[in-house]
Amino acid sequence: MGDLNFFSGSIELEKTQRRKRSIILICILIYIGIVGGMYYMLTKDAGEIEDNIVSLREYANSTEFSTKLMEIKAQKNEYDVLRNYHDAVKAILADFENSGFISTDLLDEINATIPQGIILNNMMFSPGLVVISGEASSRTEVAEFYKNLKDTGIFSDITLGTVNENEDIEEEIVVDISYSFDMQCTTKGGKTS
Hints:
Blueprint: H1 8-60, H2 63-97, H3 104-113, E1 118-126, E2 129-136, H4 139-152, E3 155-170, E4 173-187
Antiparallel strand pairs: 1-2, 2-4, 3-4
């Protein structure tokens, strides 16, 4: 038979309490270690930041920095002047485009299509519309002019108005025959400038 130990319950209780105290002590030591490590890291980073602040202040007070800052301000002023100039030129260009001046490109295109033997008497320009009147020595030249204008691709619609035969008569003899015509040409996009 075994011995009865009346203190076995208190011995077990003491062992359990020692284990709990050991675990609590270990947790406290780990916590102190973590907090100490964090404090060390933060103070180290704070020291580096303070060193950087000091060096940046020294650089900000240096003549090199002042010179570069003045150069940057001068370049910014130049940029602002150029930006204002650009905006002014853009506004002038927009006013010019809306002013109703006739595009030289349009005139060059029309001029390139005129067959020999056609004389233009009048050209009227309004926004999106060009009205042309002239004389030709034959109906074929009028048709050729019409086709050439259509082939340029700058007009969305060309309407040939009237083609009248004009006779130059001297002493009851027809000396010369010419044909007067007029056309209305609608530009693509509605612009003549």
